[in-house]
From TrEMBL:
Residues 183-288 form the HIT domain. GO terms for molecular function: DNA 5'-adenosine monophosphate hydrolase activity; DNA-3'-diphospho-5'-guanosine diphosphatase activity; double-stranded RNA binding; mismatched DNA binding; single-strand break-containing DNA binding; single-stranded DNA binding; zinc ion binding. It comes from Oryzias melastigma (Marine medaka). It catalyses: a 3'-end 2'-deoxyribonucleotide-3'-diphospho-5'-guanosine-DNA + H2O = a 3'-end 2'-deoxyribonucleotide 3'-phosphate-DNA + GMP + 2 H(+); a 5'-end adenosine-5'-diphospho-5'-ribonucleoside-2'-deoxyribonucleotide-DNA + H2O = a 5'-end 5'-phospho-ribonucleoside-2'-deoxyribonucleotide-DNA + AMP + 2 H(+); a 5'-end adenosine-5'-diphospho-5'-2'-deoxyribonucleoside-DNA + H2O = a 5'-end 5'-phospho-2'-deoxyribonucleoside-DNA + AMP + 2 H(+). GO terms for cellular component: nucleolus; nucleoplasm. This is Aprataxin. SUPFAM superfamilies: HIT-like (SSF54197), SMAD/FHA domain (SSF49879).
Length: 357
């Protein structure tokens, strides 16, 4: 009689193949679920699958290689980045990841770990109740469903949904602004009298906390709308009103005759709650520090307000082109003469030629 290295049971012939050992697969699945349940469900979080000492010992007869896999959720973009840290084969469907490489995994696709022995799927779900140990009322969270070859994995991924609710001016932060996550900061700022410069029954205007130019305001609706993709044709009148308020802010600016302005939205905003940027084109601000800041306002990553309104009127929704996030990596170019500059300090020095204080 021999002892099974996985189940610890006596048998006539010990099972030395993890892929054919049902008990081993079940134990590994239970351990994975325990670790996942301890992970906070917050946007853009990282989860690393790291075998325990017992799991490593169980597979030592077969390989001494690491099977670690790192998952980074990009909730606003609708995918998860999968990075293979160990040497054991990991794939997304038929696409092999490879050690040190990173592949995007969309909801419904399968993550196959160790030669397809352990399949997982990813789901994005809206957390409307919150849970202990996790940040409450996050617009989206990530769930990983795992399974084994002895069990059919859950392949049905929840659709990316964003709920639009109406919130009165006095209750905006009471209902959804106390999540504590930085991406929810606008919902707190819009209630701060020190930040407000204008408000009516539909919108509020606040100073951007980290302005990227001499004049930088944000126009936010009291109605809670997470992002551009949550807009529909019925929001046309609201966005037109937001634009009228933006025009009013520009007209009241003391330097309106010497500075030009743009009004628009980031295609993929980092902050939750839709907001219209009203920004002067001097970009004279110490808060403008890197290429991402610059390109987010000077490339097609910044969608003009009138174009957003036109898309809603014509199509009933706002579409963002694939690869838009790559625009943030473009070289630094002056938005006036299109001269390429090597660094942000060099660009700011160049801009002085176009904009004098």
């Amino acid at each position: 009689m021999k002892q099974c290295p996985f189940a610890g049971l006596l048998a006539k012939r010990a099972n030395t193949n993890p892929s054919s050992c049902l008990i081993y697969r079940q134990l590994l699945w239970v351990e994975a679920q325990k670790r996942l349940s301890k992970t906070k469900s917050v946007p853009d979080t990282k989860v690393t699958f790291q075998p325990t000492a017992a799991e490593r010992a169980a597979t030592q007869h077969k390989t001494k290689q690491s099977i670690d896999v790192e998952l980074k959720a990009e909730c606003n973009k609708g995918y998860v980045k999968v990075k293979q840290l160990g040497l054991n084969p990991t794939s997304i469907g038929s696409v092999v990841v490879g050690k040190g490489n990173e592949v995007k995994m969309k909801p419904g696709e399968q993550l196959l770990v160790v030669n397809s022995l352990y399949p997982y799927t990813v789901q994005f779900k809206e957390d409307i109740t919150g849970s202990q140990g996790a940040i409450k009322k996050i617009p989206q969270q990530v769930e990983i469903d795992g399974g084994s070859q002895s069990e059919a994995p859950n392949m049905k991924a929840a659709k990316l949904t964003e709920k639009v609710t109406t919130v009165s001016p006095g209750e905006a932060t009471k209902t959804s602004g106390n999540s504590g996550h930085w991406s929810q900061g606008l919902k707190t700022s819009m209630q701060d009298p020190k930040m407000q410069v204008y408000k009516d029954d539909k919108v509020v205007v606040i100073k951007d906390k980290y302005p990227k130019a001499r004049y930088h305001w944000l126009v936010l609706p009291w109605q809670s709308i997470p992002s551009l993709k949550a807009l529909s044709g019925e929001h046309c009148d609201l966005l037109k009103h937001m634009q009228k308020v933006a025009d009013r802010m520009i007209q009241q600016c003391p330097e309106t005759n010497s500075l030009s302005f743009r009004t628009g939205y980031h295609a993929i905003p980092s902050m939750s709650h839709i907001h219209l940027h009203v920004i002067s084109q001097d970009f004279d601000s110490p808060c403008l520090k890197n290429k991402k800041h610059w390109n987010s306002f000077t490339t097609d990553y910044f969608i003009d307000s009138e174009n957003v309104i036109q898309m809603l009127e014509n199509d009933g929704s706002v579409s963002v082109k694939d690869g838009t996030s790559e625009l943030l990596k473009l070289p630094l170019r002056c938005h006036v003469c299109h001269k390429e500059c090597p660094t942000i300090p060099a660009l700011k020095e160049h801009l002085k030629r176009h904009f004098s204080k």
